[in-house]
């Protein structure tokens, strides 16, 4: 299993990645600011998994979502809240070329599986505690 990244470590990695990732790259051909089904054009070999937001000691993380200010799951400006769904089930991937970070997870339903991806923007990361 990939190394668990707590919110502080994840935010630090995201800030560093944003500082380095200023040039255009093939990984940015399709806008991925909000959740998207993974484009077929995305070159899987260009990415490396660097961590996970799924804690080892949490066998069934919450399905509760954190969507303040009328944001939706699909919104480009929706907060990235690592303790909430779907982020608590995400792997953190990095483009080996430009060093940008992406979140990826598999959405599963009764008759389908959808690999989803979202670009990480450090300013959207919020470490919001779960309700008691």
TrEMBL record:
Q: Which domain of life is it from?
A: Bacteria
Q: What is this protein called?
A: Uncharacterized protein
Please give the organism. Answer: Paraburkholderia panacisoli
Which taxonomic lineage is given here?
A: Bacteria, Pseudomonadati, Pseudomonadota, Betaproteobacteria, Burkholderiales
